[in-house]
From TrEMBL:
UniProt similarity note: Belongs to the iron-sulfur cluster assembly SufBD family.
TM helices/strands, residue ranges: none
Cited Pfam families: SUFBD_core, SufBD_N
Name of the protein: Fe-S cluster assembly protein SufD
InterPro entries: Fe-S_cluster_assembly_SufBD, SUF_FeS_clus_asmbl_SufBD_core, SUF_FeS_clus_asmbl_SufBD_sf, SUF_FeS_clus_asmbl_SufD, SufBD_N
Species per Swiss-Prot/TrEMBL record: Methylopila henanensis
NCBIfam families in UniProt: sufD (TIGR01981)
Domain SUF system FeS cluster assembly SufBD core: residue ranges: 179-409
Amino acid sequence: MNAEVRSIRTAAESALVEAFAAVGPSLPGGADVTERRAAALREIAERGLPTRRVEDWKYFDLRALMRDARPLAAPIGDAEIEAARALLPLAGVDAARIVFVNGQFCAALSDIDPLPEGVSATWLADALGDDGAALFDRGEAPAGNAAVALNAAFVADGIVLGIAAGVAVARPIHVANVQTGAAHAAFGRVAVTAGEGASVTIVESHVGSPEGHQTNTHVSVTLADRADVSLVKLQDEGLGTLHLATLTATLGAGAKLSSLALSAGSAAARQQVYLAFRGDRSTAEIRGAGFAGARRLLDTTLVVEHDALGCASREHFKTALDGEARSVFQGKIVVKPGAQKTDGKMMAQALLLSEGAEADAKPELEIFADDVVCGHGATVGALDDELLFYLKSRGIPQKEAEALMVQAFVGEVIETAEDEALRDALTARSTAWLKARD
């Protein structure tokens, strides 16, 4: 006799199923979208949240980290808007601003009038009509990804941006996400399509109060031939927050993608990036920097798929860890058959500022073509004692000397931001973290 083995649902998994049953019928979208949502929720209900037994989640045990599911955020009112106003980041950056408070569009804090001709902005609820199911495509993300499935099941608000062919958008477009009020779950989605020869800078920020929210965002970017898109992200949410973020990107021929992310908040944050070269001679530069103390966890999971001729990719991630913090880097470059002349390089570096800090790195290459130049590397180390002694011998106090060295370490990544105001803002946030160290 064969016994059927069934896993017992956790409190979080049961709460997610119950929440979808309650709110699913009221979420925006036509019949196709509703079915996509239901299918995504079934993935979670049948498989459960991923554990460390799932290879992609080996270092980020979502089932253990998400012991309960926060209730969906309530409709925002004046109190939430005013609280969010005080938290809005990057005030010194000259940009068109689209603000979501607790996952809901907030017109009172947004400033979208500066959007130039050739740039269209459609709210997700409006885009999810009878023909909106395509917005729920996984892009380059693998099937069964829990973060993507949860976002598809519950997302109710977001923005769809279209940049017409040949349009060069001079000012950045800032999509700001603010969490405030009682602990809740919030879901967001940003879809960007850049037409042939178009160029734009998209800034994404996440800040919030310390109540212990759960946030889940999915940003999808499609670059037509010769499009040029720059992405800058600041993740600075409250230190009780669980942050799940997905970036999917598809590049056409001759396209250029630049991405820079700084993580300085949340209790546990996972940034997963799935990028694919579908057109010849395109380039991508994916960079990230992170700061973590106490028992915080930062996870970067990255898959870059080369499936075209003569493409180049560069991935560089740096983290500074204090206390009992932990960083994870899982990076993979895949070169498909026929993707000759590929040039791919990947590097992950971690700086341990305490004996209790830990860094895990798992770089991989999968190469199925024979005319390529690919490489990867990973380093983990402490501050240079000789250099630290030199700085102290010049009268610089210990803490200040350490801060200078850490700033130089992560500055190599932050300095790649082309916009001066953005670069200064990211540098200021890293300086504030260093000053706050015990």
